[in-house]
């Protein structure tokens, strides 16, 4: 079972998401919070497989909660999926910097939300496809003055790891990468497990951002 924590300040949203998730055989909602402080307390107590957090909540917003449970200082990392009605770039930037595994709009199809939760529970990342190109482009542009670490990072990767990073940055799933490279999905997962620490990142989503930030792949590549 995938154990999920939900946090949203709107009762109808909490009820709807709970009903959606609990209807699945492999998903269980283990905690529901109405504000950020309650979400942080429940996350610490329950250690769910995935925490689905709204951004704008009383007492503490979802991104601040995320920074505490999946950021560099977290004692136990809990993967976070941000679900929000706000399609605002700054929120996405803060969420990426907080270390979240995924970001979706609440008006996404139910199947897409379920797929995102399953991907994140399996160690994958997800980002709303309608946001990806614009967000990554602007995120990278805002950080052009940062020191570029690509040379050292790329030198540490094997040829196969470089191939996987390129495809990952273009939004491919493990299954799609395996098909493109004609290898088993388990092989892709093994390469990813070795590659992420080399890049100093903790998720596929962060690896994709790293690839764009360090110009291993460009935004134009996403349209190919």
TrEMBL record:
**Which Pfam families does the UniProt entry name for this protein?**
GerE, Response_reg
- Kindly give the InterPro entries that the UniProt entry links to this protein: CheY-like_superfamily, NreC/VraR/RcsB-like_REC, Sig_transdc_resp-reg_receiver, Tscrpt_reg_LuxR_C, WalR-like
- Annotated Response regulatory domain ranges read 3-121
Task: State the Gene3D superfamilies in the record.
Answer: 3.40.50.2300
UniProt keyword Methyltransferase present: no
Q: Which residues carry this modification: 4-aspartylphosphate?
A: 54
Residues that span the membrane, as ranges: none
Which residues does the UniProt record annotate as the domain HTH luxR-type?
150-215
Q: Which UniProt keywords apply?
A: DNA-binding, Phosphoprotein, Transcription, Transcription regulation
What name appears for this protein in its UniProt entry? Response regulator transcription factor
Organism phylogeny:
Bacteria, Bacillati, Actinomycetota, Actinomycetes, Kitasatosporales
């Amino acid at each position: 079972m995938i154990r999920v924590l939900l946090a949203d300040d709107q009762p109808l949203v909490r009820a709807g998401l709970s009903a959606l998730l609990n209807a699945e055989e492999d998903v269980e909602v283990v905690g529901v919070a109405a504000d950020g402080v309650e979400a942080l307390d429940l996350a610490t107590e329950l250690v769910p497989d995935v925490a689905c957090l709204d951004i704008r909540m009383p007492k503490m917003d979802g991104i601040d909660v995320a920074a505490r449970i999946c950021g560099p200082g977290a004692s136990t990392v809990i993967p976070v999926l941000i679900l929000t009605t706000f399609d605002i770039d700054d929120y996405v930037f803060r969420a990426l910097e907080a270390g979240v595994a995924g970001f979706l709009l609440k008006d996404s199809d139910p199947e897409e939300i379920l797929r995102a939760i399953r991907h994140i529970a399996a160690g994958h990342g997800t980002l709303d496809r309608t946001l990806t190109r614009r967000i990554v482009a602007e995120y990278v542009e805002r950080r052009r003055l940062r020191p570029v670490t690509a040379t050292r990072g790329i030198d540490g990767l094997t040829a196969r790891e470089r191939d996987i990073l390129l495809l990952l940055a273009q939004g491919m799933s493990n299954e799609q990468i395996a098909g493109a490279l004609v290898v088993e999905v388990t092989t892709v997962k093994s390469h990813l497990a070795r590659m992420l620490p080399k890049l100093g990142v903790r998720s596929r989503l962060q690896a994709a951002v790293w690839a764009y930030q360090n110009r291993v792949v460009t935004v134009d590549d996403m349209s190919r």
